[in-house]
Write a structure and sequence with these properties.
By secondary structure, this protein is mainly beta. It has four domains: 23-173, Glucose Permease (Domain IIA) (Distorted Sandwich); 184-345, no CATH class; 361-467, Chondroitinase Ac, Chain A, domain 3 (Sandwich); 473-560, Sandwich (Immunoglobulin-like), CATH 2.60.40.1220. Helices cover 9% and strands 42% of the residues. It is built from five helices and 48 strands. The strands form nine sheets. Strands 15, 16, 17, 18, 19, 20, 21, 22, 23, 24, 25, 26 and 27 form a 13-stranded mixed sheet that branches. Strands 1, 4, 6, 7, 8, 10, 11, 13 and 14 form a nine-stranded antiparallel sheet that branches. Strands 29-30-34-38-37 form a five-stranded antiparallel sheet, with no helix packed on it. Strand 6 and strand 7 (85-90) form a beta hairpin.
Length: 562
């Protein structure tokens, strides 16, 4: 253990030294407006850590995005989901900056994108321009802020990645965010570890009552415990000018002044980010919508954001033991919130037993497991789960109750069903879907081999064999068939499919492809007449929309323009 602590300390020292060598005066601000954050680096999100800063844009779109340094366009990706319209700039110092959820690109970049989209006849694409074709200068406008992709509102997602493509905290590079606010705390939990440990007369996780002190810090009720225990905290940070609940920069714990555990959100790799589900209390989040960070390292948690630890952050309590456990939460500006947990080692009589529910299916996380239940075949690859787990699995006809979504899944699990009892003409319209909160099947990518359907998932829940033989609906939004629309700047059409979802679409006017941008949040396709494809007076529009099961709708209309 001493050897491990020495290596961890050495690594952290080298890491800190490297951080001091970062080019803090190299990158300028990507926006010429006050920088206020709606999301911070390392923030806990669904299945991943947030890899950049979310910069507020005053609830509006269209602010110019400025190149923070000289460079060239390394990558362009346009997608309906995820980052939406994204741009990647490579800089001479080896770092890459990333900009996501753009409204549009600027100047030569926008022209390049449009030409590619029309050449490929698709809105979505990914491209890596060759030979530094699109160079940029510091302060040059490279795009405009927007709300594209899976964005919850207008903002700029901004990243800085190191030469190994690992996202780093942009605040380390000198970007200034006014912040005089102290981090806030929602709750603190204690976790007994193993069969012989307990806390507050229970072997289960329990919440500690927080008592605010005169200095603004917290103290919890006295904790009575025995054996190995760990702690968890739900916390968030805020910067000046915003009420958004952002992530903390550093969390450090100690016992009687001796450091036990430190988490530092300065850098991580995309390969490790899904292990966030091991780092946080996944079950508590799914049942209470609050993310609790475990201040100890469990098995199968390789996260590099844990930069130092003693005994994996655990505390071992003996009878008669008396000490103070301290949690210190710090933001990048050094504002500090401290929580003190007084601990008393005490033997308890008849502590509440562990709330373990044994079932017929016990899965070993290091072994692949095949399970057949009714019509369903399930395969759980080795290391799909983080630990050995009891699973509740039931099949009722075409419905599979596959535990519940309170256990994280790291690798894809396969679920198959034999649909040989369905007619051959129905097979192409069948799919395995997960029931959503409304009790409707959400489409998962499916494959079919003969009469056997298979889907892959990383979520426990209820799955059903569903059928979709209903084509999408198509309705014009800002025009009518046979009417003049000379004053229109755009052509808008609403497309919807409430079963398997929209898979593809293609629009032409007088036989020529037109580029239509799909906003899945509003179910609207938009064509911009500035693309200058539509030049005739009489125009015949044809739109073909296909859902994920191959059902299609063809919409045709005529409009006139001068």
């Amino acid at each position: 253990m001493k050897h491990f602590i020495f290596l961890a300390t050495l690594f952290f020292g080298l890491f800190t030294s490297a951080q001091q060598d970062l080019p803090k005066d190299y990158f300028g601000s990507p926006l010429d407006i006050p920088i206020i954050l709606s999301g911070s680096f390392g923030e806990l999100r669904s299945n991943h850590f947030h890899s950049g800063l979310d910069i507020k844009t005053q609830q509006r779109e269209g602010f110019p995005i400025l190149a923070p340094a000289d460079g060239y366009v390394k990558r362009i990706k346009v997608a309906h989901y995820g980052y939406g319209k994204a741009l990647y700039i490579q800089h001479p110092n080896g770092y890459t900056t990333v900009y996501a959820h753009l409204q549009r690109y600027a100047n030569d970049i926008e022209k390049y994108v449009k030409e590619l989209q029309y050449t490929k006849e698709t809105f979505e694409f990914e491209d890596f321009p060759k030979n530094k074709l699109l160079s940029v200068k510091k302060g040059e406008i490279i795009g405009y802020t927007g709300n594209s992709g899976s964005s919850g509102g207008p903002h700029l997602h901004f990243e800085i990645r190191d030469p190994a493509s690992r996202p780093m905290n942009p605040l380390l590079f000198g970007i200034e965010i006014p912040d005089t606010k102290t981090p806030l705390v929602n709750s603190v939990f204690v976790y007994p570890v193993g069969d012989s440990a307990y806390a507050n007369n229970s072997k289960n996780r329990s919440k500690l009552r927080l008592i605010k002190q005169k200095d603004g810090n917290y103290k919890t009720e006295k904790l009575s415990a025995l054996g190995k225990i760990g702690f968890g905290v739900s916390t968030y940070d805020q910067q000046n000018g915003a009420s958004n609940k952002n992530g903390a920069y550093q969390i450090k714990t100690s016992v009687n002044g001796s450091e036990k555990f430190k988490v530092l959100f300065e850098k991580f790799s995309f390969a490790e980010t899904r292990y966030l589900n091991r780092f946080m209390d996944y079950e508590y989040f799914k049942t209470n919508k609050s993310r609790v960070q475990k201040l100890f390292r469990q098995d199968n948690n390789p996260l590099s954001v844990i930069v130092s630890e003693d005994d994996n952050g655990y505390v071992t309590i003996e009878d008669g033991f008396s000490s103070d456990y301290t949690i210190e939460i710090t933001d990048y500006k050094g504002n500090l919130m401290r929580i003190t947990v007084p601990i008393e080692g005490k033997v308890a009589e008849n502590p509440e037993p562990k709330d373990d529910k044994e079932t017929d299916h016990y899965v070993y996380h290091k072994q692949g497991t095949a399970i057949t239940k009714g019509k369903f075949d399930i395969y759980i690859p080795a290391e799909s789960l983080y630990e050995n787990t009891y699973l509740n699995i039931e099949a009722k006809g075409d419905t599979l109750i596959f535990h519940e979504n309170i256990i994280p899944v790291h690798k894809n699990i396969s679920i198959s069903i034999d649909a040989s009892n369905y007619k051959s003409e129905e097979l192409s319209k069948l799919y395995i879907g997960e029931l959503n909160y409304r009790g409707q099947p959400s489409y998962n990518n499916n494959s079919r081999r003969g009469t056997k359907l298979t889907t892959r998932t990383r979520t426990f829940g209820t799955y059903v064999l569903a059928i979709d033989n209903t084509p999408p609906t198509v309705k014009p939004v800002n025009f009518k068939d046979g009417k003049w629309i000379s004053n229109n700047k755009t052509l808008k059409i609403k497309i919807e499919d409430d079963r398997s979802g929209i898979s593809s679409y293609r629009a032409t006017v007088n036989g020529k492809f037109i580029l239509m941008e799909y906003n899945y949040k509003t179910d609207v396709l938009t064509y911009d007449f500035d693309d200058d494809v539509v030049q005739d007076t009489e125009n015949n529009l044809k739109l073909i929309v296909v859902d994920s099961m191959g059902n299609s709708t063809t919409f045709e209309a005529t409009f006139f323009r001068k």
